[in-house]
Design goal:
Elements lengths: L15 E2 L10 H13 L10 H16 L8 E4 L2 H10 L8 E5 L8 H10 L2 E5 L8 H11 L5 E7 L11 H10 L3 E5 L11 H4 L3 E5 L11 E5 L49 H15 L1 H16 L7 E2 L11 E5 L5 H10 L2 E2 L1 E3 L2 E4 L7 H13 L3
Parallel strand pairs: 1-11, 3-4, 3-5, 5-6, 6-7
Antiparallel strand pairs: 2-8, 7-8, 9-10, 10-13, 12-13
Helix pairs in contact: 1-8, 2-8, 9-11
Length: 385
């Protein structure tokens, strides 16, 4: 297991930050790169035409390596998950009666566009509801998700882990089932990629879309997406000069080329060269490749496993570790325990967590320690003693 990495971040030593699922703290190296690249525009004559493409290439190569994608050209630079989902919807032919499968209370950016499609195209959005909060919940939820796929299913659009409580979904099994009915598998990796191992070669999603400011350790405002072969000839939601062939030759831009670039590059957002955010996200991913998501999962498991066992089961419920992520999990209360009261107690101890649905969402990373978790659990236990 790696040692604690808090010194790589600029965190307040008197504050316990267990909230990486909300927004990651910034690596010192990412901050430095951001500052250096912000200053570059002071002298725009030093920014070459090649600079519009070189950093993008590095980012795509690093993200492709992180998710075991064989081709960096299968990676698109996007501003948000909703943008990535919009490109997906633009390039699937829907018919009235097609079914779209989602999960209860999944993140809104992977919900609203599908509901709008239901109104405009007559498709049916099916929500797979979460079982009761009790032993075996995640396992039953996974079973219900697979069982929801039928011959009428056109798309399954789900996260790898649920953003509210870290429930882990078996994407390999889900991919097998969607292949049987020729349905698309669209994965929101925002709360998993970077901290949880993901292999495009093993799971083969049709698209994997990730915001960059959480577990990828980038700045707010930029993300990345993998698009598979079913989208290689797609039409992007925007026509910008950079996603057309020949855009590297600035002197020839007056001679329009209607052909889009190959594979997922056609889905790059306008101004995807972003001279500040692209190298910052690229540096965040570089550090993740050094640590590896496997090591991050092990680290989070080791600092949480013993401490969480001390939480009174009479008053709190946490999913079995085999069926949830180690870097993100929900603590559910039982009985008459008041979440607002617990929220006040936790905040008074300078501890940051989130509250999503009925869960207290806890999301540690390599800057945390077992003692951080112990202080949170002690705070919760004091409410029932």
């Amino acid at each position: 297991m790696i040692a604690q990495q808090k010194d790589r971040f600029d965190l307040d030593p008197d504050h316990i930050y267990l909230n990486g699922a909300y927004m990651s703290p910034q690596l010192r190296s990412v901050t430095q790169i951001g500052i250096e690249n912000l200053k570059k525009k002071n002298r725009p004559y030093e920014i070459s035409e090649a600079d519009f493409f070189s950093e993008k290439r590095v980012l795509k190569e690093r993200f492709a390596q992180l998710i075991s994608a064989p081709d960096p050209e299968a990676i698109a630079i996007i501003p948000s998950v909703s943008y990535g989902i919009a490109n997906v919807i633009r390039n699937i032919t829907f018919e009235k009666g097609d079914e779209i499968i989602l999960l209860q209370e999944q993140f809104p950016s992977n919900y609203y566009a599908w509901k709008q499609l239901e109104a405009s195209h007559g498709v049916l959005v099916k929500i797979v509801t979460a079982p009761a909060v009790e032993t075996g919940r995640a396992e039953r939820w996974n079973e219900a998700l697979v069982e929801a796929v039928t011959e009428r299913t056109k798309v399954v659009a789900v996260p790898h882990v649920h953003w509210a409580d870290g429930t882990l979904f078996n994407l390999s099994l889900l991919r097998k089932r969607t292949n049987e009915v020729n349905a698309y598998l669209i994965v929101d990796g925002t709360q998993s990629v970077g901290a949880l191992p993901f292999s495009v070669q093993d799971i083969a999603p049709d698209a994997l879309i990730s915001g960059g400011y959480k577990w990828l350790l980038g700045a707010y405002g930029l993300g990345v997406a993998y698009y598979g072969e079913r989208f290689y000839e797609g039409i992007p939601i925007e026509n910008n000069w950079m996603n057309h062939e020949g855009s590297e030759n600035f002197s020839n831009l007056v001679n329009y080329n209607e052909r889009f670039k190959a594979k997922a590059t056609r889905f790059d957002v306008g101004e995807s060269s972003n001279f500040i955010l692209v190298p910052m996200l690229s540096e965040g991913i570089r550090q993740l490749l050094e640590w590896t998501p496997e090591v991050i999962q092990d680290y989070c498991r080791n600092i949480t496993k013993d401490v969480l066992k001390t939480l009174p089961k009479k008053y709190f419920y946490i999913e079995d570790p085999k069926f949830r992520a180690q870097h993100l999990f929900g603590i559910y209360t039982k009985g008459e325990l008041s979440i607002p009261n617990l929220k006040q107690r936790i905040a008074a101890q300078n501890i940051s967590v989130s509250y999503r649905g009925k869960a207290i969402r806890v999301s540690p990373n390599v800057y945390n320690t077992e003692d951080d978790l112990q202080q949170l659990i002690s705070c919760l236990r004091s409410a029932v003693n």
